[in-house]
Structure formats: C-alpha cells, structure tokens
Amino acid sequence: MTAGLVKEVQGGRGGELTLVTWNIHGAVGTDGARAPERIARVLIEIDADIVALQEVPLGGAAAASADVLAGLARATNRRAVAGPTLDTPQRRFGNAVLARWPVTEARTLDLSFGGREPRGALDVDLLCNGEALRVVATHLGLRPRERRAQIAQLLTAFDRPGLPVILAGDINEWLLWGRALRMLAGHFRAAPAPATFPSRWPMLALDRVWMHPASRLASVQAWSHGEAPVASDHLPVVAHIAAGARDR
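Structure for Endonuclease/exonuclease/phosphatase family protein, as requested:
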C-alpha cells in the first residue's frame, strides 16, 4: 500500500453508520490481477464506518499468502479483526472486519459442514459513538443443505436480546425463495437485496445485509462505481444504518 492511500478518519457523520460487506476474492480481480491496493482504493472511496470482508488473505509463511488485511487496515485507517476459516502455518484465510471504532470483543464460529470447504463467521462487538453494536461477518457454503445447517447454527448464536446486531456477508443463496433466505428473513425481517454477482454484469444477490431492529436499516445498495466491478468478482454492498434505538 502506498502512503497516498492512507486517509485521515473522522468521527461518525450525523449519527448515521455506514457498513459495507464485500467478498474480495483474495484481492484477485476479474482481470486476473492480484491487486490489494485496488481493493483499498474502493474501500477508501466508500469510506464506510464498518467493513465486513470475505475471502481475505490473512498472512502465512507462503509468499503468496501476504497479509492483505493488515494492508487494508493501514490504508483505510481502521481497526482490523481477523476471523480465519483456514489457519495453517503456511496460510491464513477467511473473514475479517475493519472498524472505525474500538472493538470490545471478538469471537469466531466454525460453520464447517462435513467434508466441504471450511466456513465460519466472525462475531464482533463494537462501541460505536457510545452504543454497543454487534456485527457478524460470514461466508456460507455452496450447497443448499450446507447453507441451511450453517444458518441454523448462526441463528442459535444470536442470544443477546436488546443488543443491535448486523449480519453481513456472502450468503451464496441465489434462489429468491430459498429456504436459507426464508430462515434469515424470519429472524431479521426481509431486507433489500441488490444483485452483486458477477461483478461486471450482476445478476445474483449473493451478498446480503440484515439488521435487528430492522427499522434501523435505512438503505442497502450495490456499489458499482470506479474500480469496484474489476477489483473482485463480487460487488460491494453498502448499507446505511440509522442512529439510535428504534423499535421494530
């Protein structure tokens, strides 16, 4: 990352929070180039308070396993929390959260299913302008049975009523009325779902944001500006969260 990418961070804007979730595809773009600095430029342009990332290289002994998260944290001037789903001496890879505010606690949840690719969720508590906020960043599996089991496991973890919670990530569910989405909508209430995949010609709404209480989720949009359609095979999703506690 170059020094020119580093941006001074100010406090929250008018009390509203901005969150972005993005599967960055290992920082490899649709042009085949591995360019973490391109991911950083898109995130700086969005300037979100909270960033939930999937498919993030988190370092390791192998030369190809650079710590992309550390570079993104420096470039965006955000606090970083890693949630590896693959964690070996040679390679660490998985979910991550970048946040403008202090992180008070972080947990990882193993969502691996049978012999399928390791999956997980990163569960982070933040103190945002004096308010406790829980953010869960996840990347679910490719098969319907796998996703259903993972969502059931996730929902049992949401056991602290009264604490605002955001679930964000690559849900990998493309069926509009798929059972996985019905399970999540039943817990969080339906939320806007813009198409994000493939990034150049988005047709499928694989990347999602939900919040409880749902009334605080003011808007959800795909970000297709600038380098975003080339930086990854998914588009980022940007959500605006209203300040303060408002009941559903």
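The helical segments are 36-46, 68-76, 144-157, 179-188, 228-231.
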